[in-house]
Design goal:
It is built from seven helices and 14 strands. By secondary structure, the protein is α+β, with helices and mostly antiparallel strands. It is globular, with a radius of gyration of 22 Å. It binds zinc ion. The site of zinc ion (ZN) has 7 residues, from loops. InterPro entries: DUF1989.
Length: about 300
């Protein structure tokens, strides 16, 4: 009887297939942005409104990487200045390179693809906003294939996967570009981490859930812009795949272009006037149950 009544219950497989997806993290429960939504709306036009001024700029040559420092509260912009080109970006706390961009938690908190308002979170045990996207002129959303722009789902093109697939030794890839930049910054290959795929258009296929790319929709004049929530070292590689209109190993030489990086400094006291300040590390105490769950005679004390 028991077996019979149990068989009438839906199986765990059926329950899962019929259940509605639950979003895991309620973004509205995150601590509010310091300075409020009014500040972040104003940041989108801080430079054109005269609230921030350009203090430096640099060019990332094609198929290479460059690094730059951004003090907390400064703004950096990656500009499509010469032609359609994607970039792979890393960032670290300037004072502590162990604290770095944490793509998987950022993906869980926000989305597979980032846009204006989303934050770049750092790894545990810090887990705080390193930067916030304040403008994304592409604002692509998601197309009919489920593709979006600026993903945190893929990693970077690298010589190890290429070697697995072809047996070749190939150095012109974003990972190697980022490694050379890291070495110039006193870091090493182990500091290079999963990236924000700036301007890249990607998704997962509907039928097999495989990672795919499309030609980037970026046009000359487009940019993505961030405010540094802590002092940062940022690095970005101009991908040898260019705008990714040619599949890896698909034949044909992709056209590649430089990208321009601009760094802006807000006027003295402007951010503070809104109540903005640098983000703080996680408030978790860090005990991990090491001292509070001592078991005495089988019962928690
Ligand atoms: Zn690449």
């Amino acid at each position: 009887m028991k077996i019979e009544s149990m068989s009438q219950q839906p199986s765990r497989r059926e329950i899962a297939r019929n259940a509605k997806p639950m979003v895991c993290y309620a973004v509205e429960n995150l601590p509010p942005k310091k300075g409020g939504d009014g500040l972040y709306a104003s940041l989108r036009t801080a430079a054109t409104d005269g609230n921030a001024s350009l203090v430096s700029s640099l060019v990332i040559p094609p198929c290479d990487a460059r690094s730059w420092e951004v003090p907390a509260g400064h703004i950096w912009r990656i500009v499509c200045s010469h032609g359609p080109q994607v970039a792979d970006m890393n960032c670290w706390s300037l004072r502590n390179p162990h604290e770095r961009f944490y793509t998987s938690k950022t993906r869980q908190i926000h989305s597979t693809h980032l846009t204006t308002g989303d934050r770049l979170w750092s790894n545990m045990p810090y887990l705080r906003p390193m930067a916030t996207i304040i403008e994304d002129t592409i604002a692509y959303g998601f197309d009919d294939d489920g593709a979006g722009v600026h993903d945190v789902i893929g990693s970077r093109c690298d010589p190890y996967t290429h070697n697995l697939m072809t047996g070749e030794n190939k150095n012109d890839c974003c990972h190697s570009n980022l490694v050379r930049a890291a070495l110039r910054d006193g870091l090493n290959e182990m500091d290079v981490h999963d990236v924000l795929n700036v301007f890249m258009c990607t998704g997962f296929t509907r039928d097999t859930n495989q990672y795919f790319a499309k030609p980037s929709p970026v046009e000359v004049g487009d940019y993505i812009e961030f405010i540094a929530e802590i002092d940062l070292l940022v690095s970005a590689s101009t991908c040898p795949q260019g705008d990714v209109s040619v599949a890896c190993g698909g034949g044909g030489e992709p056209r590649t272009y430089p990208l321009t990086v601009e760094i802006y400094k807000p006027n003295e006291g402007w951010l503070e006037g809104w109540g903005w300040s640098s983000s703080e590390v996680s408030g978790y105490g860090g005990d991990h149950g090491l001292t509070c769950n001592i078991v005495v005679d089988g019962a928690p004390s």
